[in-house]
Design a protein that fits this description.
The complex is a heterodimer of chains A (about 300) and B (about 180). Chain A has about 300 residues and is of the alpha/beta class. Chain A has helices at about 5-15, 30, 65-85, 135-140, 205-215, 245-255, 285-295, 300-305, and strands at about 50-60, 90-95, 110-115, 150-155, 160-170, 175, 185, 190, 205. The radius of gyration of chain A is 22 Å and the shape is globular. Chain B has helices at about 5-15, 30-40, 170-185, and strands at about 25-30, 40-55, 60-75, 80-85, 90, 95, 110-115, 120-125, 130-135, 145, 155, 170. In chain B, the strands form 3 sheets. In chain B, strands 2-3-4-8-7 form a 5-stranded mixed β-barrel. Chain B is an alpha+beta fold and about 180 residues long. Classes of the chains: A alpha/beta (about 300), B alpha+beta (about 180).
Chain lengths: ~300, ~180
């Protein structure tokens, strides 16, 4: 293995600290830029300015008072992190019966949280709409793939500036719960409460929303167990209700209370070597240097370098 | 061949330590059989063009792709040209992105598993990016297929929910045989 490869591997290792995060970037193909120059998504805010992001829950779709309260707790969790060192704040508005989501071209835009408790595919032949396009708006049903629990739909420009970001939750194919414990009991390919119903944790709303709100503010998934932004949530999980250190670091570093919002200044590594990272997501050079020094001290390493 | 007993351990350790690329969606995998059973139509086709527009409600961007049908692998291909609608796209400098949606490039040869999108002639891809294979034609070799839109999707085994390995190429003939076998069940 060449010395350069060792340095690159060390660099990758250096980007997996416990406190880590990955920023979501613009779609390189849609923006016609190389992936190495794809901008990181972010909400704009001036230096020292507090940017308020209005959020509004939609009523209906099976969302009861407990679910609305769970979403409010997720918003409060993020606001607590923002208050500590960031310059964003979620402003929760009163729930509305307007269940539309997506980008309002004539504005203003509010980040909507919309639950669905029935799937369009179960409603038979739908009239007056195109599946995959607007049947959720026309018939108030989950019109996305049945294998997805929740989706965040961001609208942005190619400079990475977020203009709107909504969250839709699939209560048609997943059993949504709001209790704190106990976890459900796995049985074959499902997870059930001992007494039936939703008396235990199956798919926790607060867990789900805390994760999705990370996407709303510009975070991508990270393959790191214990992270709020880990893409996988097993049934009964509530760990993501709490922001992990990496996610908190994102708030402080990307949206610093006393400075400008950080756009991407660190180009991503080659996807074949490691995950793409954003600003402040690790310091790869120090471990790279150490491994380089360690390699130079080993006789076999010197041989391989010749 | 004799190898160092430490080598597999070191490789496993390295594999555990190197984080994979950040991905933005998780999906349960669909086998070729499941894709075929869910699809009303499976075709090998060439991408003629794509275009994004605002949806009927005016709040969502969708991308329409025109396909020239080269071969019907399952179901009927009533016309030589098909239209496929996918969520997300870019219009007038604005981007809406749905991670996991299949992406098409003009000129690309594909095998797609399609389901009707309403009563009209438009279809959508079953399982989003899971239902689109790109056809590769290496010089002097038999045609191969590979799913290529899963870079940002974490694909899990549908039963064990364990992450699947990287996508592997399959011969076009083998894919044809699997589709036909599924269609006959």
């Amino acid at each position: 293995m060449s010395s350069l490869a060792w340095v690159l591997i060390a660099g990758v290792l250096g980007q997996a600290p416990e406190a880590s995060y990955v920023r979501r970037r613009v779609d390189a193909a849609a923006c016609e830029v190389p992936s190495s120059k794809a901008a990181c998504l972010h909400w704009e805010a001036g230096p020292g300015e507090v940017r308020t992001l209005p959020v509004q829950q939609a009523t209906g779709g099976g969302a009861d008072g407990e679910m609305h309260a769970a979403v409010s707790r997720s918003l409060a969790t993020w606001n607590e992190a923002f208050a500590a060192c960031g310059q964003l704040t979620f402003e929760e508005r009163a729930p509305t019966g307007d269940r539309r989501f997506g980008y309002a071209q004539d504005g203003p835009n509010v980040s909507s949280v919309v639950f669905f408790d029935r799937a369009c595919r179960d409603l038979g032949q739908l009239e007056g709409c195109t599946p995959g396009e607007d049947c959720d708006l026309v018939h108030d049903c989950w019109d996305h793939d049945d294998r997805f629990l929740a989706l965040t739909l961001p609208t942005y420009d190619c400079a990475g500036r977020l203009l709107d970001s909504d969250v839709v939750v699939n209560g048609a194919d997943f059993t949504l719960t709001t209790v704190d414990a106990p976890a459900c009991q796995p049985a074959l390919d499902v997870c059930l409460c001992p007494g039936g119903g939703t008396s235990c944790v199956i798919t926790d709303v607060e867990n789900t929303l805390t994760h999705e709100l990370g996407h709303v503010v510009g975070l991508d998934h990270i393959q790191l167990a214990g992270s709020t932004m880990s893409p996988w949530a097993s049934p009964g999980e509530t760990d993501k209700r709490v922001l992990d250190p990496g996610t908190r670091a994102f708030v402080c570093e990307v949206y610093p209370a006393d400075g400008p919002v950080q756009t991407c200044v660190v180009p991503p590594l080659d996807a074949e070597l490691g995950r793409s990272v954003g600003c402040g997501a690790g310091t790869p050079l120090l471990p790279a240097s150490l491994l380089w020094w360690w390699r130079r001290r080993r006789p076999c390493a010197r041989r391989s370098m010749r | 061949m004799v190898s160092s007993p430490r080598a597999p351990f070191c490789l496993m350790l390295l594999a555990c330590l190197i984080p994979s690329q950040g991905r933005a969606s998780t999906a349960l995998d669909l086998s070729v059989e499941e894709l075929t059973l869910r699809a009303g139509r499976v075709v090998r086709a060439r991408v003629v063009g794509t275009g994004a527009r605002w949806s009927a409600g005016g709040r969502r961007i969708v991308t329409e792709t025109r396909l020239e049908v080269l071969e019907a692998l399952a179901g009927e291909a009533r016309s030589r040209e098909l239209r496929v609608v996918q969520p997300g796209g870019a219009v007038d400098g604005l981007v809406q992105e749905v991670i996991g949606a299949a992406q098409f490039s003009p000129g690309e040869e594909v095998v797609v598993f399609l389901e009707p999108a309403g009563a009209g002639p438009t279809s959508r891809v079953v399982g989003m990016a899971l239902g689109k294979f790109r056809v590769l034609r290496p010089d002097g070799k038999a045609a191969q297929v590979r799913r290529d839109g899963l870079e940002r999707v974490r694909v899990l085994h549908p039963m064990t929910h364990r992450p699947q390995g990287p996508e592997r190429a399959l011969s076009l003939d083998a894919l044809r045989a699997q589709i036909r076998a599924a269609g006959e069940r």
